[in-house]
Predict the structure.
Amino acid sequence: MTDTPQPPQETVDITTAAAPRISRDVKVGAACGLLVALMVGAAYAAVPFYNWFCRATGFNGTTQVAQIAPKGAPLARTVAVRFDSNVSGGLPWKFEPEQNEIEVRVGEVVTVYYTVTNLAARTTTGQAAYNVAPLTVGSYFTKINCFCFTEQSMAPGEKREMAVVFYVDQAFAKDSENDGVNTITLSYTFYPVKEPAPKPVAAGEPDKRKG
């Protein structure tokens, strides 16, 4: 009896078969890692970009900042500016405007004052956030000087006057959307600062913070 010849068996190279799978896994892992890195980077960049966008466009009632007074004489049109003050929880301050409302001409530089009193028996620090209403007026409401730009540290029982120098840009009157706007509200809220930024040490003065 003659043995029937068997067909040759195929040999599968396990190393060769696994290589494409490993290569795909590496690519997928690298893509996921890149996506996570981009998301983290976007999260960190979102806050400064949002702040820049608000300052540039007046979005959400964010006011504008200028170094000098506007050119040209103020317009005849006037608008009432109301002043609002708030203190967030955790900050023992009394904060209020010296005037609740004033009438200003568009393009006129005005200085107003808020008074702040530290009611605590210890030094406390706060910083103000601000906006204007209606929100669309933010791009026309311009500050030259404001206490909201820096942290404010108050000694126990200290009372202080804080100035705001501002004007309503003349472009406000040229925008037809503002034809019915007769009142602008400038609102401030002081928030506590738990870790104030250290003050710079004057030249020649030893830095006691070292060591």
